[in-house]
Amino acid sequence: MIIYSETISLDRGIEQDWLQWMKKVYIPQVMETELFESNSMMKLLDPIVDDQMVTYNVQYACLSMAILRKFEREHQSNFNNAHKSRYGNRFVSFQTILEKI
Q: Which residues 6+ apart lie within 8 Å of 25 measured at CB?
């Protein structure tokens, strides 16, 4: 199983709006691509790097690297743009790819 992981740090002032948007819009739309088998969201509790920021990690599981590459080619830029359009410079993010062993 391949895990596509997004780590997002955002201003605490937008946390509740962002959480609602992620749960009701963003993650459901990612799942509607039908490329991922499951997803999970976690909140980073420790270490806290900046008192003004909060960090979350969202993980999407897919069956192969080929499927993940298809997501990257066909969908990833649209999702990145939606995030930037809604929250501008009030967040930073990075992605990692993991393999479940």
A: none
Contact 63, 37 (CB under 8 A): yes
- Please give the biggest Cα pair distance in the chain: 39
Side chain identity at residue 91, one-letter code: F
Give the pLDDT confidence of 3-47 residue by residue, as tens digits. 999 999 999 999 999 999 999 999 999 999 999 999 999 999 988
Distance of alpha carbon 38 from alpha carbon 7, whole angstroms: 17
Residue 101 CA to residue 91 CA, distance in Å, equals 31
Q: Is the pTM of this model over 0.90?
A: yes
| Helix, strand counts (H, E) of the chain | 4, 4
3-class DSSP assignment, residue 40 = strand
Beta strands in 1-101 (DSSP E): 2-11, 38-43, 53-62, 91-99
- Beta-carbon count within 10 A of 91 CB: 19
